């Protein structure tokens, strides 16, 4: 992969209701749908199979469930073009949360197969991510 491919920085699922979301992020509740979208099962698998760029000791809980049930540990996933947190697959699977159409097209173009990224790829992505934050 060329270094240029790492300059795209797009984040999914930074819903303002989530602890790891952005205060100015979109609403998770507003993204909930009654029915699954096309290819939702394949999309959930794609989200779960993205390379783990970072893992934390933090747990994430379902903010939409009455008891705020535990989802899993918080991880940051990537496919070298997009970034998302590990709980996003849960919200798409359970609540049929709608995602950015540009990302959906990207996943379709990849035939819902997340690329296998090497450790070298992940280090370059991380370096580029933090470089652009410092700029």
Assign the structural class, choosing from mainly alpha, mainly beta, alpha/beta, alpha+beta, or little secondary structure.
Answer: alpha+beta
The stretches of 5 or more residues where confidence is low (pLDDT under 50) are 1-5
Please give the order of strands in the largest beta sheet.
Answer: 1-4-3-2
Describe the main β-sheet briefly: 4 strands, mixed
Kindly report how far apart the N and C termini lie: 23 Å
Oligomer: single chain
Report mean pLDDT, rounded to a whole number.
90
- The helix tally amounts to 5
- By DSSP, the count of extended strands is 4
**Strand fraction band?**
15-25%
Shape: globular
Write the H/E string, N to C.
EHHEEEHHH
Computed CA radius of gyration, to the nearest angstrom: 15 Å
Helix content: 25-40%
Structure notes:
With 135 residues, the protein is an alpha+beta fold. Helices cover 35% and strands 20% of the residues. The protein has five helices and four strands. The chain has helices at 28-31, 40-49, 88-95, 101-109, 119-134; strands spanning 10-12, 51-61, 70-78, 82-85. Strands 1-4-3-2 form a four-stranded mixed beta sheet. The radius of gyration is 15 Å and the shape is globular. The model is unreliable at 1-5 (pLDDT under 50).
């Amino acid at each position: 992969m060329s270094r240029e491919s790492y300059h795209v920085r797009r984040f999914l699922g930074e819903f303002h209701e989530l602890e790891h979301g952005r205060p100015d992020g979109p609403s998770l509740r507003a993204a909930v749908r009654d029915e699954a979208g096309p290819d939702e099962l394949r999309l959930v698998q794609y989200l779960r199979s993205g390379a783990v760029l970072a893992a934390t000791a933090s747990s994430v809980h379902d903010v939409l469930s009455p008891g705020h049930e535990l989802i899993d540990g918080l991880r940051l996933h990537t496919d070298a073009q997009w970034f998302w947190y590990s709980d996003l697959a849960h919200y798409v699977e359970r609540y049929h949360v709608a995602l950015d159409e540009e990302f959906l097209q990207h996943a379709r173009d990849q035939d819902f197969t997340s690329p296998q990224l090497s450790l070298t790829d992940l280090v370059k992505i991380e370096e580029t991510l933090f470089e652009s934050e410092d700029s």
